[in-house]
């Protein structure tokens, strides 16, 4: 039986890959699916050759500490390629490692499907020629990525954003509040400090201070904190209720959200929840990023919109009282600012395509593997 290898280095990649694996299994039961991944892929019956919780790191300096582990895993994958075990490699995001996997697959004559390609539009433009060299097919999830990559000779197709697949059963605000045990007619603020522990450690104190400031102005404000299932937070540091693995429900229940930069900002657009974006990283990593990043905004919701829909507070700009003032405006249902943000979020949703990304990528994978 021919094997397809998925390589997903983070929780979000594990989720996206699981959707593709599920669709691919339905249309190609003749293929064996194996992966570097996590619990979502395992739930789909995909055999894990390595669990991704050991790979998901962030920042320039943090990655260096994981080089030995990455090298060992890369050697394992190369051995599988050299033995001719793999009919296709499907890479999901995680470019620092996955570009090396792509190079090994290319050398072995194995096709490479890259799903959720590196954000070369933001930084790392030097990777575009390398992508063109190594990638057989690119499945991109942001609308402007297809013409950008095609302009550099990459066979790229916009498949729509995978988050849209989760909107089919998205609850109403009332349903979400009932499920979460929240009062219906009392304002709700959602906090999204990050999916990784190091992100949370850098954000949570400022997020809590911001919320405290808001509570002094809205004493009855309901507050919920959305975190990954593996995250634990000391109640002394974060006195608010934690909700695990229900980000869209949390956003649907909320009147406004404070989100770290990343995919969560697009989830807010899909859930129609006004938001403020905040992001802080290590100082050296930030200084390096300032030299490399080529876009004006870092929040994906703003990148897709092509303008600042959600106000951004980056690094030293994270001042709780100032963030609280912006959120106070968003929590006011009559605020013109809130209406402007909602209009911008609707524009973003329209640009993200239609549901069904996983199925489209699975069909691409099937075509690259070839006949049964």
Write up what this structure looks like.
The chain is an alpha/beta fold and 372 residues long. It has 2 domains: 3-160 and 356-369, Rossmann fold (3-Layer(aba) Sandwich), CATH 3.40.50.2000; 168-351, Rossmann fold (3-Layer(aba) Sandwich), CATH 3.40.50.2000. 47% of the residues lie in helices and 17% in strands. It contains 16 helices and 13 strands. It has a 7-stranded parallel β-sheet, sandwiched between helices. The protein has a 6-stranded parallel β-sheet with strand order 10-9-8-11-12-13, sandwiched between helices. α5 (95-108) links the parallel β4 (86-92) and β5 (112-115). α4 runs parallel beside α5, α8 crosses α10 (247-253) and α11 packs across α15. The chain is elongated and about 65 Å long.
The assigned structural class equals: alpha/beta
* Shape summary: elongated
Number of helices: 16
Major sheet: size, sense and barrel closure?
Answer: 7 strands, parallel
The top level CATH class name of the largest domain: Alpha Beta
Order of helices and strands: EHEHEHHEHEHEHEHEHEEHEHEHHEHHH
Under CATH, the homologous superfamily of the largest domain reads Glycogen Phosphorylase B
Layout of helices and strands:
Layout: E1 3-8, H1 11-27, E2 32-37, H2 39-43, E3 47-51, H3 60-64, H4 67-82, E4 86-92, H5 95-108, E5 112-115, H6 127-134, E6 137-140, H7 145-150, E7 156-158, H8 173-180, E8 188-192, H9 197-217, E9 222-227, E10 241-244, H10 247-253, E11 256-260, H11 263-271, E12 275-279, H12 283-292, H13 300-305, E13 312-314, H14 320-331, H15 336-351, H16 357-369
Helix pairs in contact: 1-16, 4-5, 8-10, 9-14, 10-11, 11-15
């Amino acid at each position: 039986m021919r094997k397809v290898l998925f390589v997903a280095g983070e929780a979000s990649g594990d989720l996206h890959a699981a959707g593709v694996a599920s669709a691919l299994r339905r249309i190609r039961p003749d293929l064996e699916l194996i992966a570097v991944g996590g619990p979502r892929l395992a739930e789909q019956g995909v055999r894990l050759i390595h669990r991704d919780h050991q790979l998901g790191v962030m920042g320039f300096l943090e990655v260096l500490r994981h080089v030995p582990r990455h090298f060992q895993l890369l050697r394992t994958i190369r051995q599988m390629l050299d033995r001719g075990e793999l009919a296709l490699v499907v890479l999901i995001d995680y470019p620092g490692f996955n570009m090396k996997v792509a190079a090994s697959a290319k050398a072995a004559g194995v096709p490479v499907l890259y799903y959720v390609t590196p954000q070369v539009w933001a930084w790392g433009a030097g990777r575009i020629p390398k992508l063109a060299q190594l990638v057989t097919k690119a499945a991109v999830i942001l609308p402007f990525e297809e013409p950008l990559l095609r302009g550099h000779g990459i066979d790229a197709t916009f498949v729509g954003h995978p988050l849209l697949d989760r909107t089919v059963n998205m609850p109403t605000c009332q349903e979400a509040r009932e499920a979460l045990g929240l009062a219906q007619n009392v304002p709700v603020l959602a906090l999204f400090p990050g999916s990784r522990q190091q992100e949370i450690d850098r954000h949570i104190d400022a997020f809590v201070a911001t919320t405290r400031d808001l509570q002094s102005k809205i004493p009855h404000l309901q507050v919920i904190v959305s975190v990954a299932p593996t995250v634990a937070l000391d109640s002394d540091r974060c006195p608010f209720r934690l909700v695990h693995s229900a980000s869209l429900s949390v956003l649907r229940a909320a009147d406004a959200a404070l989100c770290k930069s990343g995919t969560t900002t697009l989830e807010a657009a899909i859930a129609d929840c006004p938001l403020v974006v905040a992001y802080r990283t290590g100082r050296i990593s930030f200084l390096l990023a300032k030299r490399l990043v080529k876009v004006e905004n870092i929040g994906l919701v703003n990148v897709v919109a092509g303008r600042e829909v959600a106000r951004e507070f980056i690094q030293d700009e994270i001042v709780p009282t100032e963030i609280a003032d912006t959120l106070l405006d968003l929590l006011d249902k009559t605020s013109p600012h809130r209406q402007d943000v909602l209009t911008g979020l609707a524009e973003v949703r329209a640009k993200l395509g239609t549901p069904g990304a996983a199925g489209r990528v699975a069909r691409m994978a099937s075509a690259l593997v070839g006949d049964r």
